[in-house]
Design a protein that fits this description.
The complex is a heterodimer of chains A (about 300) and B (about 425). Chain A has an eight-stranded mixed β-sheet with strand order 3-2-4-1-5-6-7-8, with helices on both faces. Chain A starts with a helix and ends with a helix. In chain A, β2 (about 130-135), α7 and β3 form a beta-alpha-beta unit. The longest helix of chain A has 17 residues, at about 50-65. In chain A, about 55% of the residues lie in helices and about 15% in strands. Chain A contains twelve helices and eight strands. With about 425 residues, chain B is an alpha/beta fold. The chains are: A alpha/beta (about 300), B alpha/beta (about 425).
């Protein structure tokens, strides 16, 4: 199945629930105040946030007359174009060896995303090793070990409560010894206001830079598509601690739209790398901005 | 605590612009309300809930004389506060207890909402005076049972598990086990699921039918965005939940879910999770939450206390004395008594927004007030009414009588003199007294 079809399938409920709001808005006969009000509601309901919504609406209001657009159907294409511009980035190609450090707050689906990523790289013929650096949450490494087994990759873990940076160190040593292509680091979920845990993340980051200075290293933050404007704060704080390169957007198969990435992508210039749209091991897909917009509006 | 800080700051900013304004135009009110609406939306309050909220406050303000009054912005803050409390459920809601043990709580919610951790926190809280059993019914997520076991160990509560077998069977067996071993409370941890996953929702329905829980608690991540109401609504439709537990209120969570879910489902929020430690669970007080959101410290309580401590009659008399400049040490003594009745300086200051937490121990000498009182009480009624007659020998006598020094008496008299000069400058009406 293509990205589009899968996404469409995954977003079916979303479209039924919230896509209807956009649909209703674009059913308007003319582009009046009422039309913009409905559009505002649709955008805010998709978690795009007040600021991004107002910016987009303003741009729409100024470009529509310039382009002499009067029909809602044409306005819809214009809206898609504006939205696309804010999230369409070219992601630099990976070079091997690759180190992906996966971070994010509690419960967004980090561990699951790491398992699925492992599977994705394996299907591309890469060798993978996972660092179970979430030594904080109860039973996190057990959960990851099950995923590693499913994906058929190596995993380095240690006792619960031990130093995560040490686990990462061991994993990198193992990767160098085995000439492994991809290292995936699963970190402990942390609320972004916990200073100590953010320090720990910095330490892991340093270990990677020191041990594999030539590796292609990307820091990806996992965001839950159902999260509201808090996602902005999450990116802000993690970005301060470890320079985020991109986003993995999970749980897009619920009824939420993940509109918050509009706000984030625009503000931070961060591309979305992957989206998670289901519970199966192959339900993590590389992101396609155009199809994403087409699927939600 | 940074809870709701964003929302609180923004709303405060709106009202600070209105403060000290006498009378408001409808336009000014609407502009302020527009900004409140934006603040609510940025805090992830549901679009429709925010819209209704603003409409209610605006209608109420316009329908009364509030706009014309001297303290209209205070009145509007009061309206907003009342409306917030209304939105969140007006009063504390406790967990139901079965007539005959065991009491059964079924805990459900989306993946990653913090169910398992919350089960542990609840277990720990309730196990203070009850025998609690945790039941592992999440047979899907890898290592979920193990996580509950670890959590149970931390809470020092027994965990019942039967591996990956049928959840309905596990729960029924657990209830039997609880009866046989005289447990008071059974907490059933279910698998996280998407609210649109019909198969898994059916499983929860079957579970409910089988164990007939006393409470069905929906765990909701307070970071949820606009979708929170859809999630809560669907769970409520399918299971008729009895209460809501909000988790992760310790990040600088915007917490809009807290403001939306009760309104949409009609079900009370019973507990909130406020940290990663097992003890980080609090009962939910809608009124206190409203005060926090408005950054009000707890001004309403302060106002109530002032009303209790000083009758309207007394207040009027005092105002008259101030105007005619016949305020004497007798009245000063009354004021000190009133402050004491209101819980002392420290507790009063802590209820004032912006002041709370900034007062250092050494800045505030509650004993100094006692000293002042003792000095005044050692004066004759004539001296209190006319402090000018207090010369050297009287000062010595007063110092002796109150167990202080002449310097202390001098200091008090000087302070009082300064205060009177200050009062003369306060032209009546322009400079308002706090009481």
């Amino acid at each position: 199945m293509s990205f589009f079809n899968k996404l469409k399938e995954g977003l079916k409920k979303t479209r039924e629930n919230m896509g209807r709001k956009f649909f209703e808005a674009f059913k308007a006969k003319e582009l009046d105040g009422n039309f913009y009000d409905e559009l505002e509601m649709a955008m805010i309901s998709s978690d795009m946030g007040v600021t991004a919504t107002e910016q987009v609406l303003e741009e729409l209001k100024s470009t529509l007359p310039k382009k002499k657009i009067t029909k809602p159907a044409e306005a819809k294409e214009e809206l898609k174009r504006i939205l696309l511009e804010s999230i369409d980035y070219i992601i630099p190609e990976y070079t091997m060896p690759l180190v992906l450090m996966i971070s994010g707050v509690n419960g967004v689906g980090k561990t699951t995303a790491v398992g699925k990523l492992a599977h994705l790289f394996v299907t591309q013929g890469k060798s993978v090793v996972i660092a179970a650096a979430d030594t904080f949450r109860a039973a996190a490494s057990e959960q990851l070990e099950i995923w590693a087994k499913r994906a058929g990759v190596r995993i380095i873990s240690s006792m619960s409560g031990s130093d995560p940076a040490a686990v990462v160190f061991d994993t990198l040593a193992s990767a160098k010894a085995h000439n492994t292509d991809v290292v995936l680091i699963d970190t402990a979920g942390r609320l972004h206001n916990k200073v100590n845990l953010m320090q720990e993340l910095k330490k892991i980051n340093k270990v990677v830079e020191r041990e594999m200075p030539d590796a292609d290293k990307r820091n990806l933050i996992v965001l839950d598509a159902t999260t509201g404007q808090n996602a902005v704060t999450q990116v802000d704080v993690f970005n301060d601690a470890i320079d985020i390169d991109g986003i993995i957007l999970t749980k897009l198969d619920g009824t939420a739209k993940g509109g918050v990435i509009m706000a984030i992508s625009a503000d931070y210039g961060l591309p979305v790398y992957y989206v998670g749209i289901g519970e199966q091991i192959d339900d993590l897909l590389p992101f396609n901005a155009e199809e994403f917009i087409n699927a939600i509006i | 605590m940074s809870l709701f800080e964003n929302l609180s700051q923004k709303i405060n900013h709106v009202f600070s612009k209105l403060r000290n304004k006498s009378g408001l135009t409808e336009l000014e009110l609407k502009e302020a309300m527009r900004e409140v609406r934006l603040a609510l939306l940025e805090a992830d309050v549901n679009y429709i809930v925010a819209k209704d909220f603003i409409k209610n406050v605006t209608d109420k303000a316009i329908g009364t004389d509030i706009l014309k009054g001297l303290d209209s912005s205070q009145q509007i803050i009061k309206l907003v506060n009342e409306e917030l409390i209304e939105l969140m459920g007006s009063k504390l809601s406790k967990l139901a207890i079965a007539d005959r043990p065991p009491t059964i709580y079924m805990v459900c919610g989306l993946q990653g909402s913090g169910k398992t951790t919350m089960c542990g926190k609840l277990a720990k809280l309730l196990s203070k005076d009850k025998k609690v059993l945790l039941v592992a019914c999440d047979i899907y997520r890898p290592a979920a049972i193990k996580q509950l076991q670890v959590v149970g160990e931390k809470a020092k509560v027994e965990v019942f598990e039967m591996g990956q077998s049928n959840p309905v069977k596990i729960a029924s067996e657990a209830v039997h086990y609880a009866k046989d071993n005289s447990f008071d409370i059974v907490i059933v941890d279910t698998a996280g699921r998407l609210h649109i996953d019909e198969t898994l929702m059916e499983e929860l329905k079957a579970l409910k039918k089988n164990i007939i829980p006393d409470e069905i608690l929906l765990v909701v991540d307070s970071m949820l965005g606009q979708d929170s109401v859809n999630v809560a609504q669907k769970f409520n439709e399918d299971l008729n939940v009895t209460g809501i537990i909000l988790t992760k209120l310790d990040g600088d969570t915007r917490g809009g879910a807290a403001l939306s879910i009760k309104e949409v489902t009609g079900k009370p929020i019973k507990y909130i999770g406020v940290g990663e430690r097992m003890e980080d669970i609090e009962p939910f007080h809608p009124d206190r939450m409203a005060s926090r959101i408005l950054g009000m410290g707890d001004v309403l309580t302060l106002i109530e206390k002032a009303q209790d401590a000083i009758s309207e009659e007394e207040a009027r008399k005092l105002a008259k004395k101030l105007k005619t400049q016949s305020f004497d040490l007798e009245d000063y003594l009354d004021q000190l008594e009133s402050i004491k009745k209101m819980g002392g300086m420290r507790s009063m200051l802590n209820m004032i927004p912006g002041v709370s937490g900034k007062i250092k121990e050494e800045d505030l000498d509650e004993k100094a007030m006692e000293k002042t009182k003792a000095i005044i009480l050692s004066m004759t009624p004539a001296e209190r009414r006319d402090p000018d007659i207090i010369k050297s020998s009287r000062r010595k006598r007063i110092a002796k009588g109150s167990g202080t020094t002449v310097q202390d008496v001098n200091k008090l008299l000087n302070q009082f003199e300064q205060m009177k000069t200050l009062m003369k400058r306060m032209k009546s009406g322009r400079f308002k007294l706090p009481f």
